[in-house]
Amino acid sequence: MARTRCDRTPAWAQLQAAYAATGQALDVRQAFEADAQRFTRLSQEAPYVFADLSKNRIDASTEALLMDLARQSGLPEHRDAMFSRPENQQHRAARGVARFVAKSALSAGGVCGSRS
Question: Are 24 and 78 in contact (CB under 8 A)?
Fold first, then answer.
């Protein structure tokens, strides 16, 4: 399986442009003041994993661009390949849950699972 470097995808260029246009000047304190739901919207949760992206220079459009970057870099295919190898069949049930959560997150537009 050929690996696509993330910095050679259209999404990478779009992320750079978005950062130059709005991200670089984004004041996180002002973003929290303007959006009371920022923490809820930009936090991701999955079993045993929690990621709070709200304290970063990120907004909904940046989150969407990051998901595009993951897809264009072949992340879903690499994830599926990693979990389909015969030598990875021990602890199958745990990996099955992780794989389901990851697939659900990508198909639903989230990073790591459902949002609270």
Answer: no
What are the DSSP E strand ranges found in 31-92? Answer: 43-46, 49-52
The token duo for 58 is 């990120």
Answer for the pair 54, 42: CB distance below 8 angstroms, yes or no: yes
List, for residues 95-106, the tens digit of each pLDDT value: 566 666 655 555
What HEC string does 26-50 produce? Answer: CCHHHHHHHCCCHHHHCEEEECCEE
d(CA 60, CA 38): 10
Residue that wins the pLDDT comparison between 3 and 72 = 72
Q: Where are the beta strands (DSSP E) in 47-87?
A: 49-52
Mean pLDDT lowest among 24-38, 54-68, 86-100: 86-100
Amino acid, single-letter form, for residue 8: R
Confidence category of residue 116, pLDDT binned at 50, 70, 90: very low
- Residue 48: C-alpha distances to residues 60, 76, 110, 112 (Å): 24, 20, 16, 11
CA distance 87 to 77: 18
